[in-house]
Design a protein that fits this description.
Elements lengths: L2 E3 L2 E3 L5 E3 L4 E5 L5 E5 L5 H17 L12 H14 L5 H15 L17
Antiparallel strand pairs: 1-4, 2-3, 4-5
């Protein structure tokens, strides 16, 4: 069972202040304790996000908090770094392939939200 909380911090004047953003604390599918900012100051939205995270843990899915913000370009940079670190012989081919894909798909998010399917034309 997870919980919601607002962390406290010291302001520049030395006084103790409470964060306006609500944070989540829960255990993921692997049993790792996760703390994540909900990005909202509304309790019902934060509770909804916590329920999503807990539901994913019950289903055995690990949800990485930053996963929904990773772009194709960032993944491509990681792939290039991996090829370079491991001395892959096909690094030139990778550069050639990515040169065609990145202008179109680079700024896109790697994980997209599901969209409604359109009805088939009868």
């Amino acid at each position: 069972m997870g919980s919601l909380y607002r962390p406290t911090y010291r302001g520049s004047d030395g006084t103790l202040k409470e964060s306006s953003i609500i944070w989540l604390k829960y255990r993921d599918a692997l049993g790792v304790l996760r703390r994540e900012a909900s990005g909202t100051d509304k309790e019902h939205e934060a509770r909804r996000l916590l329920k999503q995270r807990e539901g994913a843990a019950v289903e055995g899915r690990v949800v990485v908090p930053r996963a929904d913000r990773v772009t194709i370009a960032e993944l491509a940079e990681n792939l290039k770094a991996d090829y370079k670190a491991n001395g892959r012989m096909s690094a030139d081919r990778l550069e050639f392939s990515l040169a065609h894909l990145l202008p179109v798909f680079g700024p896109s998010k790697a994980i997209t939200s599901p969209t409604r399917t359109s009805r088939p034309i009868a």
